[in-house]
Design goal:
This protein is an alpha+beta fold. It has one domain: OB fold (Dihydrolipoamide Acetyltransferase, E2P). Helix content is 15%, strand content 47%. It is built from 2 helices and 8 strands. The strands form 2 sheets. The chain has a 5-stranded mixed barrel. β2 and β3 form a beta hairpin. It is globular. 13% of the residues are buried.
Amino acid sequence: MNNTNLTIVGFVTANPELKTTQSGFNVVNLTIASTPSKYDKNTAEWVDGTTLFMRATAWRGFAENIANQIKKGDKVVATAKLIMEEFTDKEGNNRQTMRLDLESLGMDLSRVPKANYSAPTNSNENLYQFADSIDDESPF
């Protein structure tokens, strides 16, 4: 069976919801909002497109890691399988929805605020200290 795999970058819209199934497996659900933008040469401004909201699910230990590390507002990068689910609504109509079956999820650090980042004052000095600390008999 062929899977549709994709990568999505966006913001977590609410704190992930960790639950345990009747079978004892942990599952986490969250929503990732991704808004494309493009540069408008006429106005010399960036213009936002339509926001895509994707429900995402992860299982077992991965679910616990997400629940412990990710929170509302975090910018994340997710790789996932796109899953289409069919259901019948309250009026008896057959419907389809899509969700992400997460394979990996991590923080997007491409635009870390400068206030949260501090570079070493003298990176060469740190490198030399590390080199001096290596034992001469080390196989490396």
